[in-house]
């Protein structure tokens, strides 16, 4: 359908429709440019190998992979998965006061964007990775699905660490 095919009774409606159409066209051009830049960045020498490794993990797409790579930079700076998870913020809050200690929900510290991306990737991963899907279903038997997905995001984070550290393509398996 073309803008000229729409019949409106008011000239203001025609103007409004014209503004909306031009806004959608400019957003589409911007989206194409962003996708082109992501593709170019993923093909650069410093990211191409790691990019291929990350997209081999089910649930991690091009945008998620390049965002992770640009934010992490070098996986070697993390000595283990715990320090990597702490950097991202997928660790529980720990409260300690004298003799009282309590462990809370995930911390508010860390890289908020990466944390959100990992949780969204975890939702996709449980659809395509049998091992994580089984784990998610087991967690859901004893906790709420939103809490279970955080645990899956942590498992996904461990897999990302392993794939990048050992430079091996991810292979799906059952446990």
By secondary-structure content and strand pairing, the structural class works out as mainly alpha
Number of individual domains: 2
> Helix fraction?
55-70%
Average pLDDT, rounded to a whole number, is 87
* Terminus-to-terminus distance: 51 Å
**β content, as a range?**
5-15%
Order of helices and strands: HHHHEEHHH
Going across the biggest sheet, name each strand in turn: 1-2
Envelope shape = extended
Unreliable runs, pLDDT <50, ≥5 residues?
none
Rg (CA only):
22 Å
Characterize the biggest β-sheet.
Answer: 2 strands, antiparallel
Q: Would you count the extended β strands for me?
A: 2
Number of helices: 7
Based on the model shown, name its key terms.
175 residues, mainly alpha, 2 domains, 66% helix, extended, Transposase IS116/IS110/IS902 family protein, Transpos_IS110
Describe the structure.
With 175 residues, this protein is mainly α. It has 2 domains: 1-43; 48-166, no CATH class. The chain has 7 helices and 2 strands; from the N terminus they run H-H-H-H-E-E-H-H-H. Helix 3 (62-72) packs across helix 5 and helix 6 (130-142) packs antiparallel against helix 7. The radius of gyration is 22 Å and the shape is extended. This is Transposase IS116/IS110/IS902 family protein. One of its GO terms (biological process) is DNA transposition. Pfam families: Transposase_20 (PF02371). GO terms for molecular function: DNA binding; transposase activity.
